[in-house]
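Thread: Newbie trying to understand structure tokens

Hi all, I'm a second-year student working on a class project, and my supervisor (Dr. K.) asked me to get a predicted structure for one chain before our next meeting. I've only ever worked with sequences, so writing a 3D structure as a token string is new to me. If someone could post the tokens and maybe explain what I'm looking at, I'd be very grateful. Here's the chain:
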Amino acid sequence: MSADLLPTATSPEVRAAGAAVAVLPVGSFEQHGPHLPLTTDTLIACLIARETAATYSLFLLPPITISCSHEHAAFPGTVSLSATTLIRVIDDIAQSLHQSGVRHLVIVNGHGGNYVLSNIVQQANVSGSRMSLFPGRDDWAAARELAGMQTTVSEDMHAGELETSIVLGSQDDLVRPSYLESDNVANPRPDLLTLGIREYAPTGVIGRPSVATAEKGKKALETLIDRFGRHLGVLTRDPQR
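---
Reply by user tm_fold:
Sure, no problem. This is what the structure looks like when written as tokens:
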């Protein structure tokens, strides 16, 4: 993962900026087939977080690079945190930010298996708008449509057209040439939570990376950044809550 995806601001610069909203990328360290690195979800989360922070003048945080990847445990290299640990880490980060005067936190999630993040955000907002989770399902759907993706979210679940396109559009040197021969369609997947990815994808891919392009990836990212403005507006519309 490129160093330019990490925040480089100094403490005085952060103080001078006075941002009231922090952006936390949450990725994973899990297999992404034979053509994408284990850090793919972290890379994508960092790309989204970096661009949203720059566009909307937010406080960019470094990523959480390991999360809940238990469905990929059968593949070499995958490392996971328990859901309980992820909850505690994000809670500690949110409390630390609040103590320093940053009222709001946006979690930019790059890994679809982090189901627990939705519960974290819901609970944080019981007493007022404090936290947001981005991108949502509708955001990803819009990104797919406007980028001209050929696949649907259901058939392109993992290491497919969308993820490969985004990495091609940002750091194409990380994509191995085997993406052109790594397609694997595996619908339906009724027992995924019980049996894991390997039951449906021996190579770890569920989707069609062969139709990925850098242009699609750049347009998808651009769409997500545009749509982020609505999330930010909802999160900060009532500062007294």
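A couple of things are worth pointing out once you decode it. The first strand starts at residue 21 and ends at 26. Residues 11-236 form a domain with the Rossmann fold fold (CATH 3.40.50.10310). Feel free to ask follow-ups in this thread.
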